[in-house]
Structure formats: C-alpha cells, structure tokens
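Hello everyone,

My group is preparing for a crystallization screen and wants a predicted model to guide construct design. The compound we'll soak is zinc ion. Before spending weeks at the bench, it would help to have a computed complex in hand. I've included the protein sequence and the ligand's SMILES below. Output in structure-token form would be ideal because that's what our pipeline reads.
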Amino acid sequence: MSTTRSILAALVTSALMLSGCNLKNKAKADDKSAKPDTSAAPASDGSAASSATAKPKKELPPGKFTLMAQEVKKNPDLGKFLVYFKTGERLDAVVKAMGEYAMPRDIPIVARECGVENAFYSPQKHAISLCYELADKFYKGFISKGLSPQEANQRTLDGLTFTMLHEMGHALIGENEIGVSGGEEDNVDDLAGLILIQAKKPEWAANGPIALMQLDQGDKPQYFDEHSITQQRLGNILCMIFGSDPQGQKLILERVPELRPRAPKCPKEYAQRDKFWTKALEPFARSRN
Ligand SMILES: [Zn+2]
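Reply:
Good plan to model first. Here are the tokens for the complex, ready for your pipeline.
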C-alpha cells in the first residue's frame, strides 16, 4: 500500500520540513489510468495519448484553508495562546500544507474566544473555529496532572494540532461532499492520525485524544454521543500508530497492554484507513491532478 501512503505524507512532510521522512510522492501510472477522469479534454491528435505526461491538467478550484487569530478581549489569560497561531509556527505550517487539497472556496480557520471549550466546523459559515478556551482547558488539565508548564504547553499544542486537522477533515468532507461510513467523527480522527503518523509525528497524533480527555474528566461516558468515547479515540490512534510500523512501534504494546488483543489487526486497520482517505482526497489533490 505504499502508493496510497504517499499522498498524505507528501503534503505534510514538504511543508513541515520534517527531516528523515522517506515517503515519496510516487504515483503509479496504473493509478492514473484507473481514475475515471472523463472530464479531461480529449487530445487534439492521436499522438498525445502515447505520452504519459500529456494528460491534460484538471482544473481544480483555488480555495484553500487559511489561518487567522483574533485578539483576546474578554479574558486576558487566554492571550498566551495566540502565539500558537502566528505565521511560521507549527499550526500555520500544517494549514499551508493542507493547501494541497483544493476546496470550492477559502475556508478560514479562526482562533478566537468562543465562550466555550470547543473547536468546530460550520458548514453554514464555511469556517472552522478553534477556541482559546479549548487550549486553556488542555493546558490546565496537563498542569493539574503535574506536568511542567513547558511540557503542558507542548502537549496543548499537540492537542490543538490534532484537533485542527480533525476539524479540517470535517470541512473536507462537508465542502467536497465526500461520503463516509462508520461515523464522520471517527473518520476525521483517522485523517488527523494518518497525516501526523505519516509526517513522522505519531506522538502528536497520540497527544490529540490524550488532550481531549481533559474535556470529559469525571463525566460519565457518553455512549450515545456521535463521538466515540475518548479512550476509544485514543485506542484507535494508538492502533494506527502501531499498525503503521509494528516493529518500530512495539513499545506501545508494553505501555498500553490493553491494545495487545487488537494489535494483530492494526496493520490492516491502518492500511484500510489510509486507502480510504487517499482515494477520497485524490480528486482534490493538486499534485495528483
Ligand atoms: Zn468532530
């Protein structure tokens, strides 16, 4: 499944400038020919058909994700989180990397005071909100667990990275009318996990659901919620991390023995998720069209 792995990895590794990533954007010729691209203009003469490079470029819309951070007005304590959203920082790099995917319109990702600990995509406003209150919840949760401010800061940023990619997944599905099965919430967790794992940042992926656990401390499990229970979300991500590299990630099974019964199936689970998202996003990938 190396072909399907490349598409997600290529976009993130290039923009995040992560060294040591050996995944290459090596689309196979048979992938191209298998794609039912009937909208492509016919060649003006028979000669073009013999050249693989003569395939007409598909026109993709210019829309992309953009990131902006609003100033804090009500709660000055939240102001410290603005730094995450500055140009050149990690979240900005992730957003730029996701420009690989064409959107029918620009989708602003707005970091702001919302009055709630949340992050969400609005299909009506065609925008994503990342609430400073959510960052604050993550941060305070990690501090209460005894982490140093520096470590809490890092984990909070990891949590926001995962959460932002999760919301971008909702926007990709909503704006491009991508069909899903098995629950959109799980699907977009998969996307966030795949991107971070393939960008060689599995710890960022794992810290996503770990950060989200701060939101349901002490609550009863919400069995009827559209989201899986946070421990399940973490289990899914850990299974993907293990499945992506069973030999290299075998320590996970020592740290999280609960994963052992599922572990033999994780490589297949990982490959299935990767295949789904790669196929789903391929029509919108600028480097593939
Ligand atoms: Zn969601």
